[in-house]
Design a protein that fits this description.
Helix content is 26%, strand content 28%. The chain has helices spanning 70-81, 97-113, 146-152, 171-179, 193-202, 223-230, 247-256, 308-317, 323-330, 332-338; strands spanning 2-11, 16-25, 28-31, 40-49, 51-56, 58-59, 62-63, 85-93, 120-124, 159-164, 182-186, 206-207, 235-238, 262-264, 280-282, 285-290, 293-296, 355-358, 364-369, 372-376.
Length: 378
């Protein structure tokens, strides 16, 4: 089936175009032109590449750790579709091996089923640093064994990301993970600068939520933050919610890193997509929502009530970046990190038709995954 969408504006990933048509066939972009005999739909707003989120713990009232199932994954996907996410990694934080296996089985089933938006899985832990654990349960933090390696090295999980603390995982294990197709991110770590660069040399390519839960930048010991900012090749996820990172710190990182190496992430929790001030439990600890902030009753920040559309707007309004760059941080750069920029992250002929229609305030009016509308604002 072919269809032509004609929006007031289109952002293709690099440039804006006025009153531009895009013709879609079989879930992919056929051409940036009208095609004779094809149904045309005119839309007020701006069509942009779909957003890609590499760190999504929950949404729509659901938490992946609490219910590692396809139904839970699809609930999370539906919640985030309202905010322009067309591809994401369901994220399992530190848990026992049984939950990890169930989560992996659910991801494999969702991928086989073709659940909309699911790209793979992100295991955030359990091989982390206790001093930088945040709300990760200390009782499940442990050294890596063959049991966890067997889960990480499965070949039916799509794109695999594992966050680990390099002081607790050897370079040899990192090389094993990378050889099995895992994208290794560093985070929840108290590692020193040299240990971080040893892990990068072993194949780690990213940093999970820059600044948060990692050894800080100091004048005599640059820590993980300093190594992450100095590295020209590694990608950094950045939570732009106004709580996790001060705007000035975010601006410093953006000025220091090469363009394209910082991507927006949400670290989203169950309240995303819920209209009430819901609270929830995380490993028996109550997490309270006050406005757009989540805190465990023990005091720690506990993920986010952040969606990708809000992250884009915050990047413009809090950090002063042009809208085009904020959109790239939400789509193109995570696609490049995940190695799928040949099919996602920009609007180009032959790419998958993952499109988001935004209004003048950059609120989501419609979301298309592979050319199919998964959300339309009513």
């Amino acid at each position: 089936m072919k269809i032509t969408l004609i929006a007031e504006r289109i952002f293709d990933g690099e440039h804006f175009h006025e009153d531009a048509p895009v013709t879609i066939e079989d879930g992919h972009i056929l051409a940036f032109d009208t095609v004779k005999g094809v149904k045309e739909i005119r839309q007020a707003g701006t069509l942009v590449p779909g957003f890609i989120d590499v760190q999504v713990n929950g949404g729509g009232g659901a938490l992946f750790n609490a219910e590692p199932s396809v139904a839970c994954i699809e609930t999370i996907a539906k919640a985030h579709a309202r905010f322009g996410t067309t591809g994401f990694l369901p994220t399992l934080i530190t848990d026992d091996i049984g939950v990890m296996v169930k989560a992996a089985d659910a991801i494999a089933e969702a991928l086989q089923k073709g659940s909309a938006g699911v790209l793979g899985v992100h295991f955030e832990g359990p091989h982390l640093s206790v001093p930088k654990k945040g709300v990760h349960p200390q009782g499940f933090i442990r050294h890596i064994t063959d049991a966890e390696l067997a889960v990480f090295c499965r070949q039916d999980l799509g794109i695999k990301v594992v966050t680990l603390a390099p002081e607790n995982v050897s370079p040899e294990v990192i090389r094993t993970l990378v050889a099995s197709g895992v994208k290794v991110c560093l985070g929840h770590s108290n590692a020193d600068y040299n240990t971080v660069f040893t892990a990068l040399a072993a194949g780690a390519t990213g940093f999970t939520h820059l600044y948060n839960a990692m050894s800080p930048l100091g004048s005599r010991e640059p820590g993980m933050v300093g190594a992450a900012i100095e590295s020209e090749s590694a990608w950094c996820g950045l939570i732009v919610d106004g709580h996790h990172v001060h705007p000035a710190a975010a601006k410093i990182a953006l000025r220091a890193k090469p363009r394209g190496k910082i991507m927006l992430v949400t670290d989203a929790m169950p309240p995303v997509g819920m209209d009430d001030e819901m609270s929830f439990e995380l490993f028996g600890i109550q997490v309270l929502r006050v406005g757009d902030r989540l805190n465990a009753i023990t005091g720690e920040l506990a993920g986010c009530v952040l969606d990708m559309a809000s992250a884009v707007n915050n990047t413009v309004n809090l950090l002063g970046l042009p809208l085009a760059e904020a959109l790239r941080m939400a789509a193109l750069y995570p696609a490049q990190f995940l190695g799928i920029d040949h099919q996602a992250g920009r609007l180009a002929s032959g790419h998958r038709a993952d499109l988001v229609l935004l209004d003048a305030q950059n609120k989501v009016l419609a979301n298309y995954i592979a050319g199919q509308a998964v959300y339309v604002h009513s």
